[in-house]
Structures are given as C-alpha cells and as structure tokens.
Amino acid sequence: MAKKKETDPSMSNQADFDVETGSEATEEQSADDILSMNEQAQVILAKAREKGIEHTFMFTTTFQRYVELISHMAELQKSIKDQGCLVTKEYVKGRQNIYVHPAINAYNATAAQANNTANILMRFIVQPLSDSDDKDEFDMF
C-alpha cells in the first residue's frame, strides 16, 4: 500500500522553492545542494512536529517567511554572479562611474533578515510555547 505524502500547509503557494520537490533549482545549484536544502527544511519541520508546533500560526508564517527569504537570496546571488560585483552607471555627458552592485546590499540585508527569522524559528523549536497555568492565553496561539 502506498504511503500518502504529507504536505505542510505552511509551504503552499511557494513558487520559488518547494520543500517537497526542491523545484526551481538554479544552474549554480547542483541537485545535491537542493536535496540538502530540502533535507534541512524537512528536519526543521520534523523538529516542529516533535514539539507540536508545526500547525501554529506563528511557526507556519515564520517558516514560510524564512523559505521566501532564502529564495530571494538565491535570486540575488544569481544576479551578482551573472553581472559581477561592480556595475557602471552612465550620466548625462556619457561619463561612466563604477559602483558596487546594488544587489550586494540587498543580499546582505536579506541575509540579516533570514538570520533573524532563523533565530525566531530556533526559539519556537527549542523553547516551544507551553500550556502551563502561569502563562497568558496569548502564549498558546
């Protein structure tokens, strides 16, 4: 009897990266890299299941945001690799100035946000919401 594939509602509508299939691989990413990202995402989801938080709104939206940030970083990384670290900008009189590729700053900002989001995910998994009587009802959403 075939085992039914379990899908996570947090991963629906993800066009850039599908945890189940590792779709949308860029040329720079090998199949092993995608498998590794897929396996790592599955580990996060497994840990969340162990703690019973995989369907909470806060975990689901945070995990979805993290996957989205990773996909943005992959796109920015591809742009930097294709166009190089320096870009030229031409002004009115035809003079060209060289600048650092704007995608580098965007990549760094996105990486910082991804790191913050990963920290939040880790807190959800390491210190899950408790249902003790000491807490407010808000703590258990």
Distinctive features:
disordered C terminus; 141 residues; two-stranded antiparallel ribbon; 2 strands; 3 helices; disordered N terminus
Describe it for me?
The chain has 141 residues and is mostly helical. It has three helices and two strands, in the order H-H-E-E-H. The chain has helices at 31-51, 57-83, 102-126, and strands spanning 86-90, 96-100. It has a two-stranded antiparallel ribbon with strand order 1-2. Helix 2 (57-83) packs antiparallel against helix 3 (102-126). The model is unreliable at 1-25 and 136-141 (pLDDT under 50).
3D shape: elongated
Number of strands: 2
Order of helices and strands: HHEEH
Percentage of residues assigned to helices: 40-55%
Radius of gyration: 20 Å
Q: Give the class from helix and strand content and strand pairing.
A: mainly alpha
Rounded mean pLDDT score: 75
Helix tally?
A: 3
How far apart are the termini? 36 Å
Spans of at least 5 consecutive residues with low confidence: 1-25, 136-141
What topology, given as strand order, has the largest sheet? 1-2
Beta fraction? 5-15%
Give a topology summary:
Layout: H1 31-51, H2 57-83, E1 86-90, E2 96-100, H3 102-126
Antiparallel strand pairs: 1-2
Give a brief outline of the structure.
The chain has 141 residues and is mainly α.
